Amino acid sequence: MSGTVTAVSSNGEYSFTKPNRDGITLLAGLGVEGDVHAGVTVKHRSRVAQDPTQPNLRQVHLIHEELFAEVGAEGFTVVPGDLGENITTRGIDLLGLPVGTLLRIGDDAVLEVTGLRNPCLQIDNFQKGLLKQVVGRDEAGNTVRKAGIMSIVKEGGTVRPGDTVTAELPTGPHRPLDRV
């Protein structure tokens, strides 16, 4: 299973969106160099308020570009970096990957998938009604989160648009993604 990086984004300050870059550097065990969410322990404000010593399972946020077309069909305009992701991909089913999947990106970088992004109300501040598009319910009433996946950096490296993303599934029984 593989796809392509279509955009990379980072921001050294807390803001909802992240500007696109020509490339980002992933640092093993930390996240995106210079990004406000990089670190060994949690950096997302709501998580820090709960327990600042929690491990940072949300070092790198990935979103599938196909989501932008999906919400676009409902009248929303979203482009790479708008939802705060670090890496935008095309052609790989990020939401269908199990916990522990390794994503090999470009020549050197390796991410380990930790779970689903749990989007917050800030999405509605960005565009009213967008939260309902990225968090919904299936026919059985289960919550469905579509705002991307979270990961940790296992091996550092530079990531640029055009890089290949290859998924390496874990051995043994696969655990489906849950919010982190």
Give structural notes:
With 180 residues, the protein is mainly β. The protein has a single domain, classed as M1 Pyruvate Kinase, Domain 3 (Beta Barrel), CATH 2.40.33.20. Helix content is 13%, strand content 32%. A seven-stranded mixed beta barrel has the order 1-6-5-11-8-7-13. The protein has a three-stranded antiparallel sheet with strand order 4-3-12, with no helix packed on it. The mean pLDDT is 95. InterPro entries: MoCF_Sase_C (IPR005302), MOSC_domain (IPR052716), Pyrv_Knase-like_insert_dom_sf (IPR011037). This is MOSC domain-containing protein.
CATH topology descriptor? M1 Pyruvate Kinase, Domain 3
N-to-C terminal Cα separation, in Å?
Answer: 23 Å
Low-confidence stretches: none
**CATH C-level:** Mainly Beta
Helix and strand content put the structural class at mainly beta
Largest sheet: 7 strands, mixed, barrel
Radius of gyration, CA atoms, in whole angstroms: 15 Å
**Total beta strands:** 13
Series of secondary-structure elements, N-terminal to C-terminal: EEEEHEHEEEHHEEEEE
Mean pLDDT: 95
Q: DSSP strand (E) fraction? A: 25-35%
For the record, the CATH architecture stands as Beta Barrel
The CATH H-level superfamily is PK beta-barrel domain-like
Percent in helix: 10-25%
Structure annotation, total helices: 4
Shape summary: globular
The strands making up the biggest β-sheet line up spatially as: 1-6-5-11-8-7-13
List the domain count as a whole number.
Answer: 1
Domain MOSC: 19-168
Protein name: MOSC domain-containing protein
Pfam family, one: MOSC
Region (Disordered): 161-180
